Amino acid sequence: MGRARDAELEQRLLAAAWEVVTASGYDTLSFARVAERAGAHRTDIYRRWDSKAQLVTAAMAAHLPGVPEFDTGSLRGDIRAYLGALWQSWSADWVDVAIGVLADLDAEAERTFRTMTLRRAQPLRDAIVRAVRRGELVDMPEPAMLGDLLEGPLMHRRLVGRQVMTLDELDALADIVHGLMGARVTR
Fold it and tell me: How is domain 7-51 classified at the architecture level of CATH?
């Protein structure tokens, strides 16, 4: 029977990985740098994660700010609140970390990344359920598709345009998406 994992050491390693990757980028992260920053050994990392992508996705899952719960009382308001949370994420420096790690995902890192994205999308799923209950929507749209529709322009602007949307553009996007849902919205 193996030794139990040291939870405090694991948290130090994840914190060190997050510090290194957000300060220097994904490409420059090494197990040696993380171990040194955490006051640990490289073998401590290798016992927990098989790849750099696994370590970084675990660090992202542990340190990336969540999307806060919200209930504005309307679907349009909830869409805008969700967009605001996404905007904060896509405006932050950690996005460059995500870009680097996405190209390097192995199966375990991909599972961690998907779990993290599902957790971050939960407030939108809750908003859709509330909108149906309030009678704002006559049927349930696919939450994943709606999330993609909301986040896609933010991603495109940051990754391709190397810019962050303005708050006015965020309001316009919320109006556009809410308007596109018109066939589902009760009048």
Answer: Orthogonal Bundle (1.10)
